[in-house]
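Hi L.,

As promised, AraC family transcriptional regulator:
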Amino acid sequence: MGFTHELIEADANIPVKYIIHTASDPVSVPRHWHEAMEISYTAIGSVQNFYIDGQNYTTKPGDILVINSNAIHSILPLFEENRKALSIFFPYSFLQEHVPNISEIEFCCFLKEVSDGSLARLQGLLADFIVEAETGKRGLSSLRLTAIMYDVLYLLIKNYSVQKRNTTLITTEKHLARLTKMIAYMKDNYAEELSVSDLAAHFNLTPEYFSRFFKRYMDSTVLEYLELIRLGKAHQLLMNTDKTISYIAHSCGFPNEKSFTRVFKKVYKITPNKYRLQGKNHNLTV
């Protein structure tokens, strides 16, 4: 899930895609979007720095977040000794087939209990989904996972769907295409020295329009987002290689080690060296 516009396809034997996250995979996921509707369920521990359309969340066990189609979201998890979370992605084509008015509704983001106990039922279903995915019998497991998935979708539509509001979400194919091209170019050239003027000129736009358009839909300035792309690349090198901090900074487009450390501390609250050491110590215990 390390790219900006993500194409979600169903798993081979069930109509949805799912990922079970554990404490051993603290991967940085920069801001991105996809047509699929996504459910995030925290089973154990917490998920910090979960950004969804301008709001930041920190979850606790039992919390359920819903990311609507084309909603911009990201996650910057920190190391935690004991964490497990589930992400389920409902492809938009599947939603269109089974929910005829899906284009007219959206789902509440942070789910709370309603009078009929729907939140508790959803929590139980999602916990069962994890157990079945991890321990279920081959053959029957896909049947059980599919049944749970339909129950989850039914409860979401019945109790947590509302009429779509007028928001600044990405709503047209034109805007989706433009943003995809902008960010793809930034990801391809993150290691270069890029200014807003350089980027705007590449797309035959004025710097003012480019900045305004990007800020409106990504809720981030161009340079802030470029920093996040560079930070994501640097995070991979930091945790998967023994390259020096100076090498990582320069190879990922930061002007110097000091600049990289400043951006890293702003997001992860500690220096890159300490983060790397914390990760190595954590891996020795899992």
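The CA atoms of residues 54 and 103 lie 22 Å apart.

Thanks again for sending the construct details.

K.
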